[in-house]
Structures are given as C-alpha cells and as structure tokens.
Description:
83 residues, 7% strand, mainly alpha, 2 strands, two-stranded parallel sheet, single chain
Amino acid sequence: MDCDVDHVRCADFATVDALARASLNARRLGARLRVVNATPELEAVIGFAGLEEVLLGRRQRQAEEREEAFGVQERREADDPAV
C-alpha cells in the first residue's frame, strides 16, 4: 500500500517515526507500506535513519570498502632512542 506524503511539510524524525510505526503495523497485517511523493528533505531524513529500504522501497547504499592501510616504514638514525 502506498502512503502519499506530498502534503507533509515537516521533514523530521517524528515524521519518520510515525511512518516507521505505520509500516510496522502494515507488516503485522500482512501488507507493505511504501512512502511515495516524499520531498528530498524527507527522503534524506529517512535515509539518515537507515529506513530507505523499509519506507521507500530502495536498497540502502553500502559504504565504500576502505583500502587496507599499508604500514609506514620510518627510517631511524643510529642515535635515535627507541619509542
């Protein structure tokens, strides 16, 4: 079932909380709730909350894998004390 949020003007966590609770209730009844016509601001808050897949039907973007850090070889002078 689609939930049209075109009329929602306040993109905050209270709004996302209400949408997440509605989604949970829909799932308990065997349905899925999908948010449509969300503003870019609301989509950003939903994404920040990690609920893009649940509320917008989009897969969450995976963080890029970090390259493994290579050890840095430092040159020591003969008279430098060991640390």
